[in-house]
Structures are given as structure tokens and as C-alpha cells.
Amino acid sequence: MKTIIIGIAGGTGSGKTTLTRRLRNHFGADEVSVLNHDSYYKRHDELPYEERCKLNYDHPDSFDTELLIEHLHRLQAGQSVDVPVYDYSIHNRSDRTIRVSPAPVIIVEGILIFASPELCDMMDLKVFVDTDADVRILRRIVRDVKDRGRTLDSVVNQYLTTVKPMHEQFVEPSKRKADLIVPEGGRNEVALDMLTKWVENHLNTIDL
Known about the structure:
The protein is of the alpha/beta class.
């Protein structure tokens, strides 16, 4: 099976997940598998919770990108992989994994996926979701407080100390590596239609 890999990057709260979800819903799980870079945060069992809270989770070194690349190679070879499950409430990997099966299209999503040259080289299409900073921080606050059990103070403090400076140092410059820049992510119907047709052409080529 010829597999294509689509990278969807962008700042926190930019709309990457919405765009990814709409693409997958359109084609179905049999055609599209998704790997989220956040799942590959490094495990830190050696640190107590208080110390894990202080780590910089917005730097490329916080991710086990080598494992992500290994999983992509295995998926391309037709093998299923067991992806780690990260628990945001404890700032560490849980003991669970999720089985991801090979598919004609694999979407890799994350804020820093373009920071790795080796990972970039594996991608057939690189998409950067570009959204205003004020919109992104509001979305992050709502997400982290409601869905991840964080306090408002911790979210704001993390944004000011690591998220914002790391975005400016690593995420924003990675936009230059993108083949396609999508304003407003999954709410951009024109861009979504373009991506959908691009994927359909690939799938039709496989069928032929």
C-alpha cells in the first residue's frame, strides 16, 4: 500500500485538531490514520509531579520524536503501532496505549512537527494552520481548564513563560517549511475543500 503522510502544524489552539478531525471524518478511519505529536511527550517517572509541572513542554526536546518517526516507518510498512497515551493532568505518560492501524493516508498533527528535518522529509504535504494569537490563547484556556483539569492560573503562567516564547522561537518560523498555509484551520472551507480533493486524487491513484 502506498501511504502518504500529511503534516498539520500550527500554534496551540490554532485549529489543527479541527482540520484533522474534519479530514478524517470525511474519508473515514479506514482511509485516514492520525498520529498526534502530543502523544509522544517523553515519560518522566523520575520526577515528582511538582517538578514535572515546571518542565518546558513547548520545546522540541520535550518530545520523543524518534519514536514517532519509528512508528511512521512501521505504518508505511503495513504494521500497526501502539501509540502512548499522555495524561495532561499529571504531566506524564499513562500506562495505556492506543493501537493505530496502517492506512492510505496518515496525518501527523502537532505544534512542533516541522522542527525535525527527518520528520519533515517523510511528509508528502506540510500544512500550517495560521490563527491570531488572541484567538489561540482563549481557545487554549478553555481547553486546558475544561478538558484537561488545569487551573486558570497555571494555564496563563505556562502560556507566558514557555508557550508564547517557544511559539516565537520555533513554531512561527516553521511556517516557512509549509507547502500550504491555512488561516483559521478547520473553519476554512476553501482550504478544507482543496485538501479533500488532494487526498481524493491520491486515493483514486491507489485504486487504479
